[in-house]
Amino acid sequence: MSKPKSLVRVLILWFLLSQTLFLSKPLEGCIAKERAALLSFKEGLEDPSNRLFTWRGEDCCAWRGVACSNKTGHVVRLDLRNTKVYYGEPDMDHGLSGTLCSSLVVLRHLNYLDLSMNFFNVSQKPEFIGSMSSLRYLNLSGVSFSGGNIPPQLGNLSNLIYLDLNSELSLFDIYSNDLSWLPRLSLLEYLDMITVCFKNPLLLLRFPTCQTFVALDINRNYFGNTTFLDWVGNLTSLKYLDMSSNDLNGILPGMFNNLCNIKELDLSYNPLNIDITELVHVLSRCLRSKLQSLNLESNNLVGNLSSLLEYMTSLRTLNLNNNNLTGPIPYNIRATKLSYLDLGLNFLDGAVSKDHFVNLLNLQWLYLHENPLIVDQNWVPPVSLRWISLRSCKLGPKFPPWIRITNIIGLDISNTNIVDKVPEWFWNTSSQFLYLDLSNNQISANIHKALQFTSFKQLYLHNNLFEGPIYHHYPKA
User: Fold this and answer.
1) 319-344 pLDDT, tens per residue?
2) Which of 8, 113, 153, 417 has CA atoms 20 to 30 A from the CA of 368?
3) Which percentage of the chain shows pLDDT scores above 90?
C-alpha cells in the first residue's frame, strides 16, 4: 500500500515543533568552543554541492543546519540530512562524504542530530556518537558503518526518544550481532530498523518490557519465524507497528493480546497462509475496535471479507491486495470511516451494485482491479471517490454511465469488455482527470476529440478503435 504512514509523521512533527520552541538565534552569537568544534567537523568532510557555504563568520548559530538555544547560546541541533533524492535514491553529488570527526562530542548540549542519506567514510565506525549523552533524536538512516555492524555504543544514549537506523538506502548491508545495547534506551519511543539484518533474531527475546515505545518499524528483516516476537506483546504503548517483509509464516502468536493502542499495523508481504477470519480473531478485541490502518497485502490469505469488515469498525485504510480471497463484497460494511480500500488482485466475485459502498461517505481511493466482479451499469459510486481502479472487472459492453456523476481524477477501466462508442458527455467530464486508462477494450471515438478536452498527466488508449490524426500541439497525449 502506498498510503502515507500518518501516525509516524504526527509523532515526528510533534517532536520537531517541541524543539522549535527552544531554538532561535542567540543575541550574542554562538559559543567559541562549539564554533571551533563545528569547523573541525567540517574540515573532515567533502562537500561537492557546497551545502556548508554558510559555515563561516563568528555566529555559528546562523549557519545552515545549526540551531542554538535562545536561552544559553549552546548548539542544540545539527541537521545535515541529504534531502536530494531521485527515484528513491539519495543524490551522491549533493550528499556529504569524508570522515566524521569526533569533535562533535564537544557539543554537550546537542539533543538533535541528523546525518541521514550521506556517504561518509565506510571504513569508519562512529563510536563517538555514543558519548553524546544529551541526544534525544538521532537519525543515521542510509549511513553505512564500518563492517556494517551497528556500533553498540549507541546504548549509552539513555535520553534518546527517536532512533532511525533504516538501512534501506545504505551503500552496504547493515546488521547487528548484539542487541544488548538496545534495552538500555529506556526512554525510546520510535525505533526504525528497516532492512537491518539481525544475525541472531532470538536476541530480541531478551528485550525487556518497554512501556514507552509508541512506534516500531522492523520491516524487511526476514526473520523467518514468529517465536522471536513474543516480546512485542509487552510493548503496550505501541501505536504504530510495521513488521512487513519478515518471512513470517503460519498463525501469529498471542502477541496482540495486550496491544490495545495500535492505530497502524502493517503485516504485508509475509506468507501467513491462514484464513482471514482466523487472523481477525488473533487480534485482540480492543485492537479490532481501535485500529485505523491495516495493511495485509500479499499475505496468502484465504476466506471471505465478511468477518473483517464486520469487526474492524474504526478502519480508515485497508489494503488486502494480492491475496486469495473469495466470495462477494459485503453490502453492509461497518467500517464507515474508510477512505482507502484496496481489494485488488483477489478472486472476489458477484456483482457490484448500487447498494455497495453506500455507507462509505469518506471513501476516496477504491481498488477492485483483477477480480472477476461484474459492475452494474446502475452502480452509483460514493460522491467522495477520487480514484478508482476496475481493471479486468466486467463493465461492458456499454460505456459505464456512472462516470458522469463522479468527481474522480483517476480512473482505470482497462480490459473491462467495453464495446461501445464514447458518449459525448464523457469529453467534458474527462477534463477533470489526471489519470485515465481505457486500454484493451473495443472503444471507438475520434482521437482528436479525446485529446481536445483533457489535462491528463497519464493517458492510456491503446488496443481500442480510436481513429483520426494526433496533432503535435497536444504535448500531454
Assistant:
1) 999 999 999 999 888 889 999 999 99
2) 8
3) 43
Answer whether 418's CB lies under 8 Å from 397's CB.
yes
**How far is C-alpha 206 from the chain's CA centre?**
28
- Look at the alpha carbons of 388, 417, 301, 310 in this order and tell me if their dihedral is positive or negative: positive
State the cell numbers at 99. Answer: 570522515
Please say whether the beta carbons of 442 and 421 come within 8 A.
no
The closest alpha carbon to 450, from 438, 442, 440, 441, belongs to 438
Letter for the amino acid at 289?
Answer: S
Name the grid cell of 336.
Answer: 464507515
CA distance 31 to 320: 55
- φ, ψ for residue 197, nearest 5 deg: -90, 120
The DSSP secondary-structure symbol of 412 reads: E
* pLDDT of residue 89 exceeding 80: no
> DSSP strand E in 320-450: where?
324-327, 340-342, 347-348, 350-352, 365-367, 373-375, 387-389, 410-412, 419-421, 435-437, 442-446
User: Which of 87, 99, 95 lies closest to 117 in space, CA to CA?
Assistant: 95
317 neighbors 340 (Cβ within 8 angstroms)? yes
Total residue length of the chain? 477
Could you tell me where the beta strands, DSSP code E, fall in 165-268? 175-176, 190-192, 197-198, 215-217, 240-242, 264-266
What single-letter amino acid sits at 43? E
pTM of the model: 0.72
User: How many CB atoms neighbour CB 202 within 10 A?
Assistant: 12
